[in-house]
């Protein structure tokens, strides 16, 4: 009995992992589908079996990255031992160390893609919003724990923290120095949160 | 007497203006030299008369943008009437309105270029540093005028302001909303500076 080619388990995941690695390093435009399939060791036809276009592929890459970025915050919300503000500071610090040289994929795509793809712009906006809500939930927990002034607005502070962290990680990439992130930590966690 | 082609006055400037417009909108990689020369209405040979490479052209574009970004701050330093903090807030606000939809060219290139061009990365670092120093000088003036606590560090606050503004303008581009910038203004000018 003759059978058609059977998709191998893990091919989609392998393509996404290679794509994430390339797109994180050089962006959307400079990433070639050809090099992604070659690095993943799969035939080009397989790529189009899983993804309709490079744009659809980028959406899957963005989703994978956003899930990775959100996971520690979801864990922090369930953690009843760690101080929420200490946990949040550690989260931003560890993410900065992990991504520093490449920057944040959401921020990189955030400067590159809005003029090129409306569907990618909307996906980025959705993930930034979800991520900001998670940070806001951690800050609300901090407020309940008495670590943050009752009059503070956790959602506004979350939006400010996320965007300031994005700016700081961009500068870290340009300067090849962790100093912009140190300034962010000192000013936001040592200043903005304490002043409230 | 036969004469070689004589460079026309303004061709270099026209190329830079078109390049700035394209690169600001879509970035370095997605900008074609061909479309820039076509839009500027000059023959392709002229481009290479003025610039050795697309990279050298991008450096000239970055320099032109950085000069544009610095000019109002230089004027503010000489302005003896306007309050330095009010002037700085107005500067960030006006720049955000002017560039909002496209983001900041330095920030856009800051996420796109460090992995692609070391010479462009260094140029961006140089301009970010000069720009941050200018903001620091305005904050020092604010401190002398008694608008900022004597114990505050104007240079650290300047670095934080510049990077946070960069993050906010990136989010404005993604969200197609001025709200991230409003949060920046309220938190930085209404909070961080006042708390010092």
SS-based class of chain A: mainly alpha
- How many DSSP helices of chain A? 9
The largest β sheet of chain A comes out as: none
What oligomerization state is this entry in?
homodimer
Please identify, by name, the CATH architecture of the domain at 61-195 in chain A: Orthogonal Bundle
Give Rg of chain A in angstroms. 19 Å
**Arithmetic mean of pLDDT of chain A:** 92
Name the CATH superfamily classification of the domain at 61-195 in chain A.
Answer: Tetracycline Repressor, domain 2
Largest interface: A-B, 46 and 46 residues
Number of beta-strand segments of chain A: 0
Please state roughly what percent of the residues of chain A sit in beta strands, choosing from under 5%, 5-15%, 15-25%, 25-35%, 35-45% or over 45%.
under 5%
Q: Stretches of chain A where pLDDT falls below 50 for ≥5 residues?
A: none
What CATH calls the topology of the domain at 61-195 in chain A is Tetracycline Repressor, domain 2
What coarse outline of chain A follows from CA principal-axis ratios? elongated
What is the helix fraction of residues of chain A, given as a range?
Answer: over 70%
The string of secondary-structure elements of chain A, in order, is HHHHHHHHH
Q: Which class of the domain at 61-195 in chain A in CATH terms? A: Mainly Alpha
